[in-house]
Design a protein that fits this description.
The complex is a heterodimer. By secondary structure, chain A is mainly β. Chain A is built from no helices and 11 strands. In chain A, strand 9 and strand 10 form a beta hairpin. In chain B, a hairpin with a 2-residue loop joins strand 5 and strand 6. Chain B is an all-beta fold. In chain B, strands 2, 4, 5, 6, 9, 10 and 11 form a 7-stranded mixed sheet that branches. Chain B is globular. The chains are: A mainly beta, B mainly beta.
């Protein structure tokens, strides 16, 4: 049972444009959400998080949006840069903690110069 | 120092061998984690240590044995593994207030022959 889903396995975006990565979840107990970026042969790197008491969190070029009623979150990257090419995982946890993270299946983002 | 280190980077072992994976962090984090990641799949949580005590075991087979000798070190002892245990093993750590996500190491690529 995949509780966190990323339905797009891959996404290609022109450099300078907006990249939008999507994530859906089914467990209504999830209340803390994170995005990670992963390069080949490296561990995931934390990007940005959001708790369920907010619907938006922004950090530089990265913004995460949360729609609790739809159980959907998205990561916006503006403007997209070649170094953003990587696999992006969303993750979720319950009880406002991040001890037990459930990861999505990942989306491979390719930025086209 | 915002790094989680893991050794070895690669490990090939037979099904009768005993080996250990090592993880180290010097960020003062009080929670440490082991994840397993198969190709094209998300990381799956195996174990969580909080304040050097095992707090979560995700029903992992006993051929995997975690150990936390002190707050900076985490080991994973391996014995009588199966070929299907071949995967990338990721270590992570996080702050005691659980904010800011988990910091991941680069992983150990394990092959069981």
């Amino acid at each position: 049972d995949q509780q966190v889903k990323q339905n797009s396995p891959s996404l290609s975006v022109q450099e300078g444009r907006i990249s939008i990565l999507n994530c859906d979840y089914t467990n209504s107990m999830f209340d803390y959400f994170l995005w990670y970026k992963k390069y080949p042969a490296e561990g995931p790197t934390f990007l940005i998080s959001i708790s369920s008491i907010k619907d938006k969190n922004e950090d530089g070029r990265f913004t995460v949006f949360l729609n609790k009623s739809a159980k959907h979150l998205s990561l916006h990257i503006v403007p997209s840069q070649p170094g953003d090419s990587a696999v992006y995982f969303c993750a979720a946890s319950a009880n406002f903690g991040n001890e037990k993270l459930t990861f999505g299946t990942g989306t491979r983002l390719t930025i086209i110069p | 120092d915002t790094e989680v280190t893991q050794t070895p980077k690669h490990l090939v072992m037979g099904m009768t061998n005993k080996k250990s994976l090592k993880c180290e962090q010097h960020m003062g984090h009080r929670a440490m984690y082991w994840y397993k990641q198969k190709a094209k799949k998300p990381p799956e949580l195996m174990f969580v240590y909080s304040y050097e005590k095992l707090s979560i075991n995700e029903s992992v087979p006993s051929r995997f044995s975690p150990e936390c000798p002190n707050s900076s070190l985490l080991n994973l002892h391996l014995h009588a593994l199966q070929p299907e245990d071949s995967a990338l093993y990721l270590c992570a750590s996080s702050q005691e207030d659980r904010a800011g996500g988990q910091y991941f190491g680069p992983g150990t690529r394990l092959t069981v022959t």
